[in-house]
Every structure is written in structure tokens, then in C-alpha cells.
Amino acid sequence: MPSPKKALISGITGQDGSYLSEFLLKKGYTVYGLIRRSSSFNTARIDHLYQDLHEKNVRLRLVYGDLNDASSLNRIIKTIKPDEIYNLGAQSHVKVSFEIPEYTAEVTALGAVRLLEAIRDSGIKTKFYQASSSEMFGKVQQIPQDEKTPFYPRSPYGAAKVYAYWVTVNYREAYNIFACNGILFNHESPRRGETFVTRKITMALARIKQGVQDKLYLGNLDAKRDWGFAGDYVEAMWRMLQQPKPEDYVIATGETHSVREFLEEAFRYAGLNWKKYVKIDKRYFRPTEVDLLIGNNSKARKKLKWEPQVNFKQLVRMMVDADMELVAKQLHGTKGYKAKA
Questions:
Q1: Considering 97, 132, 133, 189, which one is annotated as catalytic?
Q2: Which of 64, 73, 78, 189 holds its CA 20 to 30 A away from the CA of 272?
Q3: CATH number at residue 150
Q4: Distance of alpha carbon 111 from alpha carbon 119, whole angstroms
Q5: How far apart are CA 19 and CA 11, in angstroms?
Q6: 188 in active site
Q7: Which residue range forms the structural domain that includes residue 241?
Q8: Is residue 103 flagged as an active site residue?
Q9: In a domain, 325, yes or no
Q10: For the segment 260-279, what is each residue's pLDDT rounded down to a tens digit?
Q11: Catalytic residue among 29, 86, 157, 269
Q12: Band of pLDDT at residue 243, cut at 50, 70 and 90
């Protein structure tokens, strides 16, 4: 019987890392997750997958390392010899990247080249997935955006992702490494970080409904995004690495919705009028805004046989339901809420 495949995931404690871990474990993989040392636990999204190392057949293992530390990456890759590497780790908050641009570049841009160098130096035969982003398109040059659309990033985060994209292409062509870029458009879930606008909305809505918050402060309500479900998108990552040759793919729904539309759908579902609670705070506006993102997923549909399963309305309601339950549990220790359908 062949040994199970081994996957190494950077960013395993994040939204995408947790969904990808679940997906790969169900496929029979042994999953190794790269984590940074911290004085506080930050593994909440994968705690339900945790297995005590004293048990037999442990298939989820966490290893200490850092995308800023090339020596740790070299050691881990040479020791584990993973069949697949998924680079999901990054400083991923666009607005914050304006405040810490150098750190964003160190982790988001140079982290990718450190991993690729570790692969090249080790000589192991592996497949590499780079988490690229629709933020690379920025001031869009074409609507909708596809794999051939020129990049015009509008943030340090977007610029860092452009570097990581091109260095992945370069290592593929220069060293014959099986390396793919997944250009993922916005993807959300109940596991999304609470500083991201979609989750900020659904968490605030749940707290408003419980009477413990009365205002929600937001920035640009007119920004339009192509929003999908993170659980759908991690399957596309895996499918890229199962192809006969490495290529780059746009992963998107092909629909665009404004922040205002997300607000309206969420509050309407909970039976509230968002205009009574939402205030605009200029501090949440970016120095340079990305007005419109909408992806063309034709290549992924054709070659990967992938398509999104969760639509916009279902996504919003899924997030509202999850946060209503979470906040009720935090406040009362019970589930205590079910949004109306």
C-alpha cells in the first residue's frame, strides 16, 4: 500500500489554511503546518483537527518555522520532503500593508522566494502552490480580469503579491519546478478574520442583535468585489497541483457586489435596517482604492473542472448564522439564535 501524500502548508492557522487542511486530510494526506512561536495560542481554526502526538497514525503535525527565516524553511523541507507545498502565509490585510509596508514585503513577497529557494536547494521533487491575489489587478485594466490581464497593484500588499507571482513563474521556467499561481478573488467564510470587512459586518450585526453594540463604523461602501466561499476555493488550489503541467489560474465567481450590497443582504436577513446602525469613518479608507474586481474563471472551469458551489446570498447568510450563534454562545453560553430563512 503506497504511503500517504505529504503536504506542507504555510498559513495553516488562517482561514484558507484551516479549510485546506480539512480537505487534504479527507483526501488521506498527512498535513504539516508551518507555525510561528507565540506566547498565546492562535490555532483556534484548526483545533478541531488536532490529534495528540502520542496517538497512532497522527496525520496533522505542526512544525515551528517562519517565512522570514530561510534556515527554518530549508530544514523543514529537507526533513519532511513534502509532495505538495501550499504557500498561504502572508501579511494579508490590505489596509494594514500601508502602515507596515516593509514587513508586508518581507513576508508576502520574500517569503515566497525563500520557499522556492529551499525547494531548489533541497533538490526534492515537489509541487508548489503560490497564493496570489486579485489585489494584484488593483486599478483594473480589463473587465472582467483573467490570467492575461495586466497587473496594476494599488497597495504594498498588492505589490508584494505581484513579486511573489512573478518569482513563482520565474522559478517554474528557470528551474523546471512544478509551481502554480492561484489568483484568488475575495473569498470569505465564518472563519474569516474579524478585521476584514465581511466578517466585521456579520460580527457587528450579531452583537447589535444581542443589544451589546449600537454602531458599526466602516469605510468605502461602494468598493465592489467578487466574493466567494473559502471552502470552495481550497479545492481549486489542490486541483491545480493535480494537473499534468503547472499553470496559473484565476479563481472567482464571476459576479461582483459592493460592500453596501453585503451590508444590505446581511441586515435584511436579520430583520434590521443597516442605515440605522452604520456610520462612515474616513480612517477606514485606503490611500489608494481598488474600485472594482470581478474575475473570469473560464480557464479554471475548463481545465480544472472547478466551479463555485456557494453563491453570494448563501455566503452572506452562512456568515450571519455562524456569528449569531457565536455571539449568543459568548454572551449566554447557549446557541440561542436562528436567523429566519
A1: 133
A2: 189
A3: 3.40.50.720
A4: 13
A5: 11
A6: no
A7: 6-189+227-251
A8: no
A9: no
A10: 999 999 999 999 999 999 99
A11: 157
A12: very high
